[in-house]
């Protein structure tokens, strides 16, 4: 599978995954979208009622009115008319059959009269009587046919109070101890029973009779203006508007249409970003790592926003959206960082009602981060960027609030606290950068600076075992960095790559001229064998790079700094010895590939120029210019730069920089005159003027 097809598959798959994730987590339930607080200014534009809606009473008001209405409510009871007669007859039968021994006959008439009296007033169960007393119910309604007659609790008996009433009705003629022998509890049962159906229906009617609204807002009526302090009455109207809006926009209706609309919106934004890449950064579309990094960064912050809105936690201004442009600026470029920021903010603001203010603040924050950050090589740089981003966000927020009529006294301080916390969270970009490097295979400026430290393991070893190669690498690194800075490439990247491009020479340092001290081991070898030893420093360098876990971008410098060129010295020497034969080109050719980035092309030029400049017999500006032109033009004509995006203008500027740099390197010092001993008085010598070099200070 070709790299191009792999990149297209990665792009399509990444976009589909991002769309699916964002649509899945995007809230679809009805949300009011406005945030307001009683006694605080209204932060939005003038709010006009889009439809008629009632002004709902507060929960406390409705409950108070319902309690007041239920205070006079009386439950419905029905009477068991057969029960009293049956119990009185049962008592007479028991009395006449001698169940109550030694109780005189006069007690029978007395007790029958009292039983009839309490049943006539009505007996209610003790449980029902307790409930009515606890609820402060004034009485009950006794259903008689089609009428309901009200009775107060004082007119009624419970089984206990009926017993006590009978026992104490006439204690003079009918003593209590004699009455107790009649077991009256057996003949006292509730004859008034609650009618649960009618009582429940009547209670619901009373509750529903309490209106939940206290007024009406008509369509087109102004509710509140921007900057106006939310009064208690307006707060109640806003709550009513929120309740009615959520009720009207029930997400269960048209669910699939909402889902389709969200998918189309997200797909349109991502398609616009992909179209930008196709027009201006086609190289990113051909890099699966770049595609995955961009899609991941664009998706993660909208996902965080959707989850926060869905759960109703925290404030979206706490989210450090400026991490997106910071990471993309470090690993890719500024223009792409800005476009990714816009896409991220647009996707995030979809679920926010205050999307205009949010979008303006976050886009300005992203632009500030891009302009303030060029290469992140020190922690102090990130602190400065964070300070500038927080300051810019606060200024934009303040300007927006003041422009909308909110005075300083009524500014919402929580938003500015969120911006400050956002800045502190932005500091986590430094440790997260290491995670991104490992996940997506990028190399940051911080890593490049660490690798260019000559005290690390690889470079320190090279400085000991191959001092000439180490000096050559330092010289090439300086030349390449100057060229890269001149033509707008990445100086730190090419400098680091130059330091490591010849690490393979550490294994056989004596076979390379810069490390030789008079003895040349190639004199004892054939041209084929010598060429293979020279070429092997590329493959050995790649092996050492894997051993020391060097990033891929550094390994690319090792493999491309000679491209598909030949070891000319041994190739020409072989042809001179065998004029009648054709050599095996593969034996004398480096494995390559040719450079495919501007930085790799710069290293190839600087490496060849620096090595060849050492062989010049006479160092003059003309000789240096001729050397540089011959080498760079020869590489270009050989087609080594066909795969990299370097221009003729870049090559012309690179040659000028190389000539000027080499002139400085090989600048000769003036010879100082020796002081002659004073033997006799001599005429004073004419005064001479010496010119000092700015670079050498001598």
Rg, rounded, reads 48 Å
Q: Hey, roughly how much beta strand do the residues contain?
A: 5-15%
Mean pLDDT: 85
Helix fraction, binned, reads 55-70%
CATH topology of the largest domain: Hypothetical protein af1432
Question: How many individual helices?
Answer: 28
Q: How many structural domains in the coordinates?
A: 3
Judging from the principal axes of the Cα atoms, what is the shape?
Answer: elongated
Which properties best describe this structure?
5% strand, Hypothetical protein af1432, four-stranded mixed sheet, mainly alpha
Account of the protein in words:
The protein is mainly alpha-helical. It has 3 domains: 3-29 and 253-440, no CATH class; 67-197, no CATH class; 445-665, Hypothetical protein af1432. It contains 28 helices and 10 strands. It has a 4-stranded mixed beta sheet. A hairpin with a 2-residue loop joins strand 5 (139-144) and strand 6. Helix 23 runs antiparallel to helix 24. The longest helix is centred in the middle third of the chain and has 26 residues, at 255-280. Mean pLDDT is 85; it is low at 684-698.
